[in-house]
Design a protein that fits this description.
By secondary structure, this protein is of the alpha/beta class. The chain is built from 6 helices and 4 strands, in the order E-H-H-E-H-H-E-H-H-E. The protein has a single domain, classed as 3-Layer(aba) Sandwich (Rossmann fold). Strands 3-2-1-4 form a 4-stranded parallel sheet, sandwiched between helices.
Length: 117
């Protein structure tokens, strides 16, 4: 399974860019979908994507687009693993968001590739 991060979805769903000129990451996601590859979205990515819209119309449009993706929900173990990742990064002097740590933990636990920028 390939898990898709917010950055890849944002590039793929950008309205004002013609398909041929979409960034490579957006084209990659579209290709995976067209090839019927097993693609899913972590629940926190769905929330993050829908939280970044400016209007109810855009929210509804994105929600409709996202209904085609299976959603992978984080477990207790995923959250604990995300905290370990966050602590390890901080101890190494690397600043990373808790959301990104959770996405990474979900991908690692499911032995999934992560499509991200």
């Amino acid at each position: 399974m390939i898990l898709v991060d917010t950055s890849a979805l944002a590039l793929a769903f950008r309205r004002r860019v013609k398909a041929a000129s979409k960034p490579p990451l957006g084209r990659k996601l579209r290709g995976l979908i067209e090839e019927d590859q097993p693609v899913a979205v972590p629940g926190i990515v769905l929330q993050e994507l829908l939280s970044g819209v400016r209007s109810e119309t855009e929210f509804d449009r994105l929600q409709d687009l996202m209904e085609g993706f299976p959603v992978v929900l984080a477990t207790y173990e995923d959250h604990a693993a995300a905290a370990r990742i966050s602590n390890a990064c901080r101890n190494a002097g690397v600043t990373v968001s808790t959301v990104d740590c959770l996405i990474a933990a979900v991908a690692i636990a499911r032995k999934s590739q992560l499509l991200t920028r």
